[in-house]
Amino acid sequence: MIEPTCCTYCGSADIKKYGVKRYRTRTAQRYHCDSCGRAWQVVTSAALTEFESSIPEINSGPQTIDWPSYNEAQMQEKLRFLEILSDLCSYVPDEETGQVGRPRASLSEMTFCMVAKLYEGLSSRRVSSDLELARKAGHIDKVPHFNTLLKYFNDTRMGPVLESLIRLSALPLKDMETTFAIDASGLSSAFYSRWFDVRLDPGKKGHDWIKIHIVCGTKTNIITAITVTDGDGADSPQFPELLNKTAEHFRVKEITADKTYSSRNNMDIAFQLGAVPYIPFKVNATGKSKGSMAWWRMFHYFQYHKDKFMARYHQRSNVESTFSMLKRKFSGKLMMKNEQAQVNEALAKLLCHNICVLIRESYESGVRADFEASAHLFPVLHTNTGPLISED
Predict the structure, then answer these.
(1) How many CB atoms lie within 10 A of CB 11?
(2) CA dist 218 to 240, 317, 362, Å?
(3) DSSP-based three-state secondary structure for 80
């Protein structure tokens, strides 16, 4: 503890100690200022509470890379990507409209083609030859016209389908992830606008951007929940929905986020789900619970055991790594022109990221990309297991 040399309130050096205050979990030295007559106290020692003692130490050792497995995953990525994407899209149901005339394109095949286009990073015309190779490999039955492909990017049905596939693609890793990070970042819909400028300059509007809010696992960088808003969308209100979606299928022990998400409501929701929220407190925050025991507990831990708190909080850097992986590999710019198409394009990019993570883990950790047991958890999708037919 550094002893104060002047009054906290008036700055006078005419101060003196006048006793020690002992609390249940901490001890504080009292000080009095003879100039202004005010008193204050400084915590000299703080013991861990029962809650804080239950938090395990974090393993901060260096991570090792299994280079042979990593190399094999990179060399086989495209072939495995098409296989996993084809498997995922097989759970997308095709609508039976019963209409007369030209039949609609298969929704599952159009989903495959949309995501494959984003993976290849090609225009709708140039990707046609790659889709022809996918057809010959048996992943699709027909290569759509490039205008049909663009039309389905504008289809409102694709949003729920792509979001469900993102969440489904994360489930093979549910036994590996217990600590998660949440954050938001922008994807540009204009070639001459940077998210860095929009984020830091209050005078600039985010109309040339859409913002993606994600939760990702800190071990594998798999994305478990996603919400898309316009460029001016606030971050903190998305926390409850994203965390609840993740907790539906994952055991969430810890959730990390930056100060933007610091609120009593968000911490209460995390505690209700059995997760410890490592969210730093703003400068003007106080320990007053106002009915939130989660807030009081985390504020105490943050104030008196900051090193331990920050060691776990810094797992949040993995969500920054996830955004970096996404934008470096699949670009941070959106090519579609209208809002619905841009949302679907962003979701398709996120699905590409998850499939690539799954491929890497299949080689490094031996994870099997099996979705049949989990597809029924998403109402938008269906299972591939047909109904049993009685012999009677």
Answers:
(1) 10
(2) 19, 8, 17
(3) helix
Domain interval for residue 35: 15-47
Residues 179 and 315 in one domain: yes
Token pair 């590996």 is at which residue? 176
Residue 110 CB contacts under 8 Å (≥ 6 apart), including other chains = 144, 148, 149, 152
The answer to whether residue 62 sits within a structural domain is no
SS3 (DSSP) at 321: helix
Q: Is the dihedral of CA 213, 262, 255, 360 positive or negative?
A: positive
Sole residue written with tokens 């217990």: 178
Q: pLDDT 10s per residue in the chain (392 long)?
A: 578 889 888 989 999 998 888 877 778 888 999 999 999 888 877 776 777 777 877 776 667 889 999 999 999 999 999 999 999 999 999 876 666 667 788 999 999 999 999 999 999 999 999 999 999 999 999 999 999 999 999 999 999 999 999 999 999 999 999 999 999 999 988 765 565 565 666 555 545 789 999 999 999 999 999 999 998 889 999 999 999 999 999 999 999 999 999 999 999 999 999 999 999 999 899 888 899 999 999 998 998 889 999 999 999 999 999 999 999 999 999 999 899 999 999 999 999 999 999 999 999 999 999 999 999 999 999 876 543 333 33
Residues 153, 84 within the same domain: yes
**Terminal alpha carbon distance of the chain:** 82
C-alpha neighbours within 13 Å on the C-beta side of residue 65: 7
Residue 98 placed within a domain: no
d(CA 158, CA 339): 13
Q: What share of the chain is helix, strand, coil (3-state, %, to 5)?
A: 45, 15, 40
Between helices 77-89 and 107-120, what is the axis angle to 10°? 150
- Cβ pair 135, 143 in contact under 8 A: yes
